[in-house]
Amino acid sequence: MYIVNENEKEYRFGDSGPKYLMKGPRMNFAVVQFMPGQDFKAHYHNVMEENFFILEGRIDIVVDGKVNTLSAGDLIHIEPSEIHYCINNYDTPVKMISTLAPYQESDKVEVDNYTYEK
């Protein structure tokens, strides 16, 4: 058992991206934040499934080319091999929880030149 406070960790990109509160041994748990206009490169996972639960704001999460506009209280479940891309197209920050399981040390495959219907 352990306890960690969000304030003890930092976002990957300063004011945005994931902030991992737990990595393994069976899952990852992160707080994720994006400021207006910020995004996270399209990618997929071979083994891990990913969930995003929106705490504040709105975000577009594109899964296999389909735009899903989510807001506070929404949860999206993404299966392994589904390409997903997150972008904050709105005028306020978005804050959400991300869980990834089962834990894999390295399971992210980035997708270059990702396009989708807007």
UniProtKB/TrEMBL annotation:
Q: Which Gene3D superfamilies match?
A: Jelly Rolls
Tell me where in this chain the Cupin type-2 domain is found.
Answer: 31-98
Q: Give coiled-coil spans as residue ranges.
A: none
The record's annotation in PANTHER family points to: LIGAND BINDING DOMAIN PROTEIN, PUTATIVE (AFU_ORTHOLOGUE AFUA_6G14370)-RELATED (PTHR43346), QUERCETIN 2,3-DIOXYGENASE-RELATED (PTHR43346:SF1)
Protein name per the record: Cupin domain-containing protein
The species this protein was found in: Enterocloster alcoholdehydrogenati
